[in-house]
Each structure stands twice: as structure tokens, then as C-alpha cells.
């Protein structure tokens, strides 16, 4: 397969090394969604073990994430939702039936031991990665992140807090424009919704569409208001193979890079788009999936690599290990080195697995139509939009980091993590019927139009007045973005403006 070859003339070759950092929490593999649940954080630990045995850890700066604090999470999420996640426990959840329902916690998104610290860990790692990119790293990796379905006030699709939105908000402190690309088999609905009405974040999601969770992601959904043409959706059908996938991915993403010119890119590498996934229905090989990583890397723009879905966990570990190699510019041997989870990879004990012979339901004609429709949208997008004069907010400060930790403890209870569960229970059928998709009704806070004059916490409290807005998906992103660029929300009105002498004014480009 062709590699590299982006359309930006100024980039040069792709061969150079990149300064890569990697976030890993040694406890992350111990979180357990419950018996029968397909989401298994243990896959992160399996990935880590492979990275270690392939000798990749020594080639990256490794960090143990600082847990995201309430106020970090509340840069996107509502206060009442976060305080619910903080307080709910498996023992007490029966006393909070109304709240469980309201926040969509219970079935797909169960309450489990340590739920909140799990959220703090994976979100802290993604935000930490964004901070590193803002400080000169080329690539930051967090395989525990990428939980793209979480909404401002609601859990969804195994996701509780949206680490991606939080990381993008962090990147927006430094970059005028951020590109989000999503290759999970499911539509990246939570991220799209958060940035649906802004031109500072472009979202591009490649996903199975039609009678499939979460039901959104129609090709006609392209953003709203200022954000029109800044959300792109690439709807795909069962059995898509590497060649068909790249026949869309490269032309579309290449054109996006050319016209949008992002300062940073976030790539959600959900591995449920691989062949043989327990919940997925695509037919990508690991190399085909990783080709997306290789292509994004070739642009030499700061790149945040995140995990996401992936439910045949041995293949998830294979994929993310191989993609870490791609990030580092290292080609890994197919024969796998022995390690503590070696028995998962039999009988071949190889890194790569052959795709299946399933039918590719995406016809050449359909693919051509999708590509030309999206290129047509992109032709309407004006080049490199820019923001007005902005103050640069203070960055998220974490204590000095535990760099280059080696040989973290990999204890593991195998019994609880082998894939013996019944997949039927988690068929991920759409929650909403797909016909209802284009008209999601979003609650919007009734707030003063000038975010500088309001108390955001008060506006976000449980008693906040809400009004239904009738257009398709516009979230309250204007205030989110204003917060992102002014940093005023969390720190409140005592005001960054007056106290932060490091604020700079950067001009419109
Ligand atoms: Zn998924």
C-alpha cells in the first residue's frame, strides 16, 4: 500500500524521527466494567506489555498521567454530571435511580468500582498529551483515551467523560485550528456535537452508517452556523477493506489538511474497525488501519494519538502496538516476542492477522459518490479560517511529571478479562432509530449572550433554565469555545484577564 504522500508541498520527507511521548497508568488495566461487558481496560495493559517487549518504551518519553481534576472535567461537562460521577458507587446506585437515568448511566455505561478515578486517569492522560504537544512534542500517545461518545451531561456508548473534547480545548489554547479525525467504526458523535458550530475545530469521522450505534453521522450532517462544512461524515458499509478505506481516507483528509491547515491533529484510533472485531463489521487489516496513522504523521503537525473502541482485545493490543511503532518510525517484526500475555496470541503468535473473506458491501460507485460529495463540501470551505484577537489562557498545570518510568507493574487477573462473554448482549443497536438522527434536539442553556458577563457555574447548575433549540445539533459550543480561548470558566470571574501576566495577545493571521 502507498504510504505517506500528502499534498502539502512544504513538508519534506516523512522519514525523520519524531519526539514522541506516551501516557500510561499502571492501574488502568484493573478497571473492570463488569461481567459480560465488552469494554475491557485490560487491553491497554496488554498493549503496554507488547510495547515493552518490542522495546518501544525506551524510545519514547513515558509519563504516568496526572488525574484530571473536577475543574478540568468541567471545562466541557456539566458540574452536576461530574459530581454525580464522582459520588456514585455500585453500592449506592440503587438510591439514585433518577440520576442514573438522567445521565444515561447503568447499562452500556455501568457503575463500577473506581469509575471516577478511571475517568480522571484517561482524561488526565489525553489532556496531559495535549499539554506536551503544546510544549514541543511531535506526537503524544494515550491508548486509554478516545472515548468519543461521551456528552456534556450524559454517558454514552461505554464513554463517561469526553477526554477528546477536553484535549482539543487544551490544544486550542495554543493553536487556532485543530483537526479531529476518527477511524473508530462508530460515529464520533460526542466530539462532533461539541464542536458542531465552530470553525476552529474540524471533525472528520469515518464510520459504519445505517442501523448501527449511535445512529448519527449522516453524510448530510456538515456543521451549523459558523461551523458549516467544518464537520464531515464518511458513512461506510459492512466489510470495507484496506484499499476501499484508503481510497476515501487519503483524498479527503489530504484535502482537509490543505484547506483547513490545522495547528494540531487529534486522531482517534478506535480498533473496532479492524477485521474480526467482536462488535464491528469492517474488514481492515492492522496495516490498513495503521496507514491512517502513517498518513497523519506524514504532515508533521503535532499529533495526539488516542485509543477508542476495540473489542477483540488481542487485536486491539496488536494494532495499538504496531501504531506506536508507526509513530516512532519503527517497523516491528511480525513474530511476537514472548511476554506475559503471550497466550492470547496463539496459535500464530504474530503481530498481524489476515483480514477475512467477508463481502465488501461498499461498491466502487458508492465510494466515488461519497468522495466527490465530501470534496465538494471542502471546496466550499474557505481557506484557513482564523480567530479574532484572543487572549491566550493559562495552560492546564500538572505537577512535574514522572518521566521515563520503566517496567511498571503488570499484574493481571486473567480470569476476569478473557473474552468469554456473550456478545449478543452488547449488539450496539442504535439507541435512536436512524430515521430520527438528523433531528436530535439539544438542550441549550438560557444564558446571557456575553459569556464574559455571566457566572458560568450558576448557568450550569441543575436548576439552569433550558430551552429546546430546533435546529439540528448546535450545542452550546460558543460558550465552550469562549471558555477555551479565555480560560474564564473554571477560574471564574476573578479573572485570568487581570491576574495572568503571561497572557499574550496574538493577532489574527
Ligand atoms: Zn467504536
TrEMBL record:
Substrate binds at residues 108, 157, 311. This is Histone deacetylase. Keywords: Chromatin regulator, Hydrolase, Metal-binding, Nucleus, Repressor, Transcription, Transcription regulation, Zinc. The lineage of its organism: Eukaryota, Viridiplantae, Streptophyta, Embryophyta, Tracheophyta. It catalyses: N(6)-acetyl-L-lysyl-[histone] + H2O = L-lysyl-[histone] + acetate. One of its GO terms (cellular component) is histone deacetylase complex. It comes from Carex littledalei. Residues 37-324 form the Histone deacetylase domain. The keyword Zinc applies. Its cofactor is Zn(2+). It is found in: Nucleus. Residues 409-431 have a biased composition (Basic and acidic residues). Residues 385-456, 488-509 are annotated as: Disordered. Signal peptide: none annotated. Residues 397-408 have a biased composition (Acidic residues). The keyword GTP-binding does not apply. It is an enzyme of class 3 (hydrolase). GO terms for molecular function: histone deacetylase activity, hydrolytic mechanism; metal ion binding. InterPro entries: HDAC_I/II (IPR003084), HDACs (IPR000286), His_deacetylse_dom (IPR023801), His_deacetylse_dom_sf (IPR037138), Ureohydrolase_dom_sf (IPR023696). Residues 493-509 have a biased composition (Polar residues). Gene3D superfamilies: Histone deacetylase domain. One of its GO terms (biological process) is epigenetic regulation of gene expression.
Amino acid at each position: 500500500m502507498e504510504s505517506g504522500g500528502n499534498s502539502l508541498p512544504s513538508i519534506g520527507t516523512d522519514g525523520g524521527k519524531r519526539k514522541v511521548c506516551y501516557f500510561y497508568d499502571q492501574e488502568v488495566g484493573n478497571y473492570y466494567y463488569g461481567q459480560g461487558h465488552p469494554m475491557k481496560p485490560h487491553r491497554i495493559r496488554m498493549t503496554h506489555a507488547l510495547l515493552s517487549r518490542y522495546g518501544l518504551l525506551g524510545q519514547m518519553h513515558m509519563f504516568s498521567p496526572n488525574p484530571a481534576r473536577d475543574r478540568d472535567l468541567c471545562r466541557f461537562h456539566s458540574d452536576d454530571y461530574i459530581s454525580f460521577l464522582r459520588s456514585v458507587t455500585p453500592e449506592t446506585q440503587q438510591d439514585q435511580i433518577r440520576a442514573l437515568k438522567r445521565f444515561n448511566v447503568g447499562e452500556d455505561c455501568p457503575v463500577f468500582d473506581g469509575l471516577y478515578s478511571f475517568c480522571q486517569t484517561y482524561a488526565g492522560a489525553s489532556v496531559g498529551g495535549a499539554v506536551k504537544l503544546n510544549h514541543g512534542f511531535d506526537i503524544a500517545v494515550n491508548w486509554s483515551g478516545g472515548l468519543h461518545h461521551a456528552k456534556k451531561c450524559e454517558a454514552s456508548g461505554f464513554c463517561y467523560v469526553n477526554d477528546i473534547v477536553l484535549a482539543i480545548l487544551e490544544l486550542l489554547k495554543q493553536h487556532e485550528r485543530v483537526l479531529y479525525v476518527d477511524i473508530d467504526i462508530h460515529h464520533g458523535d460526542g466530539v462532533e456535537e461539541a464542536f458542531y458550530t465552530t470553525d476552529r475545530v474540524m471533525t472528520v469521522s469515518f464510520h459504519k452508517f445505517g442501523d448501527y450505534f449511535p445512529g448519527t453521522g449522516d453524510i448530510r450532517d456538515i456543521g451549523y452556523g459558523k461551523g458549516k462544512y467544518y464537520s464531515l461524515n464518511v458513512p461506510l458499509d459492512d466489510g470495507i477493506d484496506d484499499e476501499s478505506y484508503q481510497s476515501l481516507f487519503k483524498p479527503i483528509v489530504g484535502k482537509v489538511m490543505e484547506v483547513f491547515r490545522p495547528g494540531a491533529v487529534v486522531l482517534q484510533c478506535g480498533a473496532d474497525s479492524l477485521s474480526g472485531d467482536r462488535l464491528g463489521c469492517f474488514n481492515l487489516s492492522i496495516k490498513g488501519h495503521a496507514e491512517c496513522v502513517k498518513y497523519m504523521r506524514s504532515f508533521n503537525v503535532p499529533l495526539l494519538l488516542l485509543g477508542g473502541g476495540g473489542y477483540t482485545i488481542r487485536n486491539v493490543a496488536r494494532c495499538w502496538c504496531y501504531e506506536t511503532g508507526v509513530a516512532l518510525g519503527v517497523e516491528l517484526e511480525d513474530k511476537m516476542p514472548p511476554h506475559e500475555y503471550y497466550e492470547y496470541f496463539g496459535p500464530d503468535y504474530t503481530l498481524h492477522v489476515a483480514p477475512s473473506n467477508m463481502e465488501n458491501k461498499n461498491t466502487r460507485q458508492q465510494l466515488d459518490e461519497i468522495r466527490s460529495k465530501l470534496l465538494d463540501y471542502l471546496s466550499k470551505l474557505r481557506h484557513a479560517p482564523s480567530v479574532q484577537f484572543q487572549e491566550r489562557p493559562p495552560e492546564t498545570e500538572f505537577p512535574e511529571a514522572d518521566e521515563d518510568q520503566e517496567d511498571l507493574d503488570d499484574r493481571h487477573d486473567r480470569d476476569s478479562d478473557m473474552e468469554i462473554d456473550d456478545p449478543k448482549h452488547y449488539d450496539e443497536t442504535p439507541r435512536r432509530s436512524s430515521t430520527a438522527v438528523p433531528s436530535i434536539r439539544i438542550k441549550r442553556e438560557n444564558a446571557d449572550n456575553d459569556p464574559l458577563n455571566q457566572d458560568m457555574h450558576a448557568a450550569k447548575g441543575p436548576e439552569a433554565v433550558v430551552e429546546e433549540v430546533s435546529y439540528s445539533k448546535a450545542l452550546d459550543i460558543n460558550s465552550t469555545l469562549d471558555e477555551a480561548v479565555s480560560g474564564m470558566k473554571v477560574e471564574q470571574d476573578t479573572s485570568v484577564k487581570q491576574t495572568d501576566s503571561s497572557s499574550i495577545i496574538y493577532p489574527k493571521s
